[in-house]
Amino acid sequence: MSQFSITVNGEAVELSVDGNTPLLWVLREQLRLLGTKFGCGMGLCGACTVHLDGSPIRSCSFPIQAAQGRQITTIEGLSDGDDLHPLQSSWLEFNVPQCGYCQSGQLMSAAALLANNPQPSDQEIDEAMSGNICRCGTYPRIRAAIRHTADNAVQQFDPKQTNESEPMEAQS
Ligand code: FES
Ligand code: FES
Fold first, then answer.
1. Mean pLDDT value across the chain
2. Whose alpha carbon is nearest atom 3 of ligand 1?
3. What residues does the 2Fe-2S ferredoxin-type domain cover (predicted)?
4. Which of 58, 74, 130 to mutate to test ligand 1, by most ligand atoms within 8 A of the CB atom?
5. What is the per-residue burial (b if ≥16 Cβ within 10 Å, else e) of 115-151?
6. 158 falls in which pLDDT band (50, 70, 90)?
7. Which residues pair with 14 in a beta bridge?
8. Mutate which of 136, 139, 141 for ligand 2 pocket (most atoms within 8 A of beta carbon)
9. Beta carbon of 136 within 6 Å of any ligand 2 atom
10. Among the CATH numbers 3.10.20.30, 3.30.429.10, 3.10.350.10, 2.40.30.20, which is that of 2-77?
11. Domain residues of the chain, as ranges?
12. Cβ-Cβ contacts under 8 Å for 81 (sequence gap 6 or more)
């Protein structure tokens, strides 16, 4: 057993655990954060995806000792309190999930993509999401929800759009 300090969803956590323990076990069994799923256990399906310092990782094959002193974000930390992440709103709007099992991993991969590349091409979306498997085949709706989120963000901050909807008053 060794001692580790990590930050999970903004909260400091002290752990006493074997350093080779996968981060996923720590999240689910010690911290009871059950939104992150166990799928293949081999880094192949993406169901266990969380963020490590903002980048997506497969927590099933990531030893806790490699997370020492670092920031972990899980699906429980993606929203800001009751304010959904824009992707979560799009997920609802596009009715993305079927069984839902893969969806927290899908959302974490998509959130990392948009944080690093707010206007991804369709090809970049496909590449970023290619490691997340969905046995229910929700891929078209996942892509549509990511595209919608990215396009919406541009409209919100595009000054041309703002000017069209709110014409400036004439200066005297
Ligand atoms: S459970 Fe981690 S990649 Fe499948
Ligand atoms: S929604 Fe069922 S596995 Fe993706």
1. 92
2. 43
3. 2-78
4. 58
5. eeeeebeeeebeebbeebbbeeebbebbbebbbbbbe
6. low
7. 5
8. 136
9. yes
10. 3.10.20.30
11. 2-77, 86-153
12. none
46 alpha carbon, closest ligand: 1
Atom of ligand 2 nearest to the CA of 106: 4
Q: Lowest-pLDDT range, 52-61, 126-135, 143-152, 159-168?
A: 159-168
**Could you say which of 1.10.260.40, 1.10.10.10, 1.10.150.120, 2.160.10.10 is the CATH number of the domain covering 86-153?**
1.10.150.120
* Side chain identity at residue 75, one-letter code: I
Query: Which protein residue's CA is at the shortest distance from atom 4 of ligand 2?
Result: 134
pLDDT at 10: 97
Which tokens go with 44?
A: 């192949």
State which ligand 2 atom lies nearest to the alpha carbon of 137.
4
